[in-house]
Design brief:
Elements lengths: L1 H30 L12 H10 L6 H4 L12 H6 L6 H24 L5 H14 L3 H4 L7 H22 L2 H15 L5 H19 L3 H25 L3 H10 L5 H9 L5 H8 L7 H12 L4 H21 L1 H4 L6 H5 L7 H4 L5 H9 L4 H17 L5 H22 L4 H28 L7
Helix pairs in contact: 1-5, 1-6, 5-6, 5-8, 6-23, 8-9, 9-11, 10-11, 10-22, 21-22, 21-23, 22-23
C-alpha cells in the first residue's frame, strides 16, 4: 500500500514537471508568431474599444457610454486594453498571455476529472495542441473582442468544472467572478449564462444538494443579465444588430415585414425594395448596408429601433419559431454555423499552427455527435461520473448558442458563429479524453 502511495506521489511530481514543460513550449509557440500587420488601424470596431478605454474607470463613459461618435461596447475588452492603449503590439502580447493562462486553467480542470496515468499525460498534450488551432490562436493578433472572449470562456468553463467537481464556495465565487467579466465581452453571452445557471438552480433543487449555492449563483446571473441589458440600452448597443437582422433576414419575407409593419416599424417597403434581393454579407452589398447607417433614408427606422425595435424583434423571435430555429434558412446559410475558414479576419495559419489547423479541420458536428452519444452510453451503462457529462454539456451550450448568436446579428455571421465550431471541437476533444479515461482506468483515483 505504501509502495502504491509512493508511486502516485512520484507520478504527481513528474506530471507537474511535464505540465510546466508543455506549458512553456505552448508559450514559446504563441510568441513565435511573426509580428502581425496593424490591420486594426483601418477597423472602426477595433478603435471603439480604445476610445471607450481611455475614459475614467468607474464613469458612465467607460461602463455604459451613450451612443455618440463611436459604437459603445461591453466594458470587459476596453478594461483589458486600458493599460496598453497607445502600444498596439502590447495589446497583442496581452491577449497571448491571457490565452496561455486561461488554456492552462482549462487543462488543469480537465485533469481533475481524469484518473488514468497515461490518459492524463495524453490529455495535457492534446488540449494544449487544441489551443494552437488557428480559429483560437489567430485572434490574438487583432484588436477585436474574440480573443479575450474566447480566453475568458475557457476560464469560465474551467472554474465551472472545478465547482461541479469540488462543490466548494471558493470555486463558486471564482466562477461567478469570471462569469461577470466573460459576460461583458459580448452582449449575447448573458442569455447563455442565464440558461446555464437556471439549469444549475433547477438541478440543485431536484437533487436537494447545494441548494443555497445554486440559488445564489442563479440570482447573481439574473442581476447580471438585467444590468448588462441596462448598459446595452444606455449605449443603444442593439441598434446596428437589429437593423442588420431586419435588412439581412427579415427583408426576405413579405410576411415577416408585414408583421413588423403591424407592430409599428416604419420604412418596411423601403427595406423590402433595397434589401430583399441582396445578401448583406457579400462585399458590395455590405458597403451599401454600411452607407445606410448614416444616410437619412433610414433615420426614422433607426429611431424606431432605439425606442421600440429591440423589444419588437425579441417578440418576433418568440412568436416565429421557424425563423428563430433557422428552419427557413438556406443550406448555404446554415453551413456558416460550422465555417472554419476565417482567413479574411485572422489570416492563414503558418508554421506549427498549420498542424493543428489541418488536424482539427477534420472534426465536425457528426464526430461531436458520435462522441456525445458514446459519453452518454458510458455514463448510463458503466460509470455515472461527472467527467462523462462534460462533453455533452459543452455541446448543449454550443447548440443553444447557435440560436442566440445567429439571431443576434445577420452581418458577419461567420465571425460571430466561429464560437460554435470552437465549442463543438472542444466538446469532441474533451469527450474523447474522458471516454479513454473511463475505458482504461481500473485503479486508484489520482485526484
Amino acid at each position: 500500500m505504501s509502495s502504491l502511495k509512493l508511486n502516485l506521489n512520484n507520478f504527481k511530481n513528474a506530471e507537474r514537471i511535464f505540465i510546466v514543460l508543455v506549458f512553456l513550449a505552448f508559450i514559446c509557440i504563441n510568441f513565435m508568431v511573426p509580428k502581425p500587420s496593424p490591420t486594426w488601424e483601418h477597423c472602426a470596431d477595433c478603435n471603439d474599444y480604445k476610445v471607450q478605454g481611455v475614459h475614467p474607470l468607474f464613469s458612465q463613459s467607460f461602463l455604459y457610454p451613450a451612443f455618440k461618435h463611436y459604437s459603445p461596447r461591453p466594458f470587459t475588452v476596453p478594461l483589458f486594453y486600458r493599460p496598453f492603449i497607445g502600444n498596439d503590439y502590447a495589446i497583442v502580447d496581452m491577449q497571448k498571455w491571457l490565452l496561455c493562462f486561461c488554456g492552462l486553467f482549462f487543462v488543469l480542470a480537465v485533469l481533475s476529472l481524469l484518473s488514468n496515468i497515461y490518459v492524463r499525460l495524453g490529455a495535457i498534450l492534446f488540449l494544449f495542441f487544441y489551443f494552437t488551432w488557428w480559429p483560437i490562436a489567430g485572434w490574438v493578433n487583432i484588436h477585436l473582442s474574440e480573443s479575450i472572449s474566447l480566453s475568458l470562456m475557457f476560464a469560465w468553463m474551467a472554474s465551472f468544472i472545478f465547482y461541479l467537481k469540488k462543490g466548494t464556495w471558493k470555486y463558486l465565487i471564482l466562477n461567478l467572478l469570471i462569469a461577470f467579466f466573460f459576460s461583458f465581452t459580448r452582449d449575447s453571452w448573458p442569455y447563455s449564462l442565464l440558461v446555464v445557471y437556471g439549469l444549475l438552480f433547477i438541478f440543485s433543487l431536484i437533487k436537494k444538494e447545494n441548494r443555497l449555492a445554486g440559488t445564489i449563483a442563479f440570482v447573481f446571473i439574473v442581476i447580471l443579465f438585467f444590468f448588462q441589458n441596462f448598459t446595452s440600452v444606455q449605449g443603444v448597443r442593439y441598434r446596428l444588430p437589429v437593423f442588420n437582422s431586419i435588412t439581412g433576414r427579415v427583408s426576405k419575407s413579405p410576411e415577416h415585414l408585414d408583421w413588423f409593419r403591424a407592430h409599428g416599424m416604419p420604412k418596411a417597403q423601403q427595406v423590402h425594395r433595397d434589401f430583399s434581393k441582396i445578401d448583406i454579407e457579400v462585399f458590395e452589398s455590405t458597403k451599401f448596408l454600411f452607407s445606410q447607417y448614416s444616410d437619412t433614408t433610414y433615420a426614422s427606422l433607426f429611431n424606431w429601433i432605439e425606442k421600440d425595435g429591440k423589444n419588437v424583434y425579441t417578440r418576433f423571435l418568440l412568436t416565429h419559431p421557424a425563423y428563430t430555429f433557422l428552419l427557413n434558412e438556406t443550406g448555404s446559410k446554415r453551413a456558416k454555423i460550422f465555417h472554419q475558414d476565417l482567413h479574411n479576419y485572422i489570416g492563414k495559419p503558418q508554421g506549427f499552427f498549420a498542424n493543428a489547423y489541418n488536424f482539427f479541420s477534420l472534426f465536425g458536428p457528426c464526430l461531436a455527435g458520435t462522441v456525445t452519444v458514446a459519453c452518454l452510453f458510458l455514463y448510463f451503462k458503466k460509470n455515472k461520473s461527472l467527467s462523462l457529462l462534460t462533453a455533452p454539456l459543452i455541446l448543449m451550450f454550443a447548440a443553444f448558442n447557435i440560436i442566440i448568436i445567429y439571431n443576434a446579428d445577420a452581418l458577419e455571421s461567420e465571425r460571430h458563429l466561429f464560437f460554435i465550431t470552437v465549442l463543438f471541437n472542444l466538446g469532441t476533444v474533451v469527450g474523447t479524453i474522458v471516454i479513454a479515461d473511463s475505458l482504461l482506468w481500473k485503479g486508484k483515483e489520482i485526484n
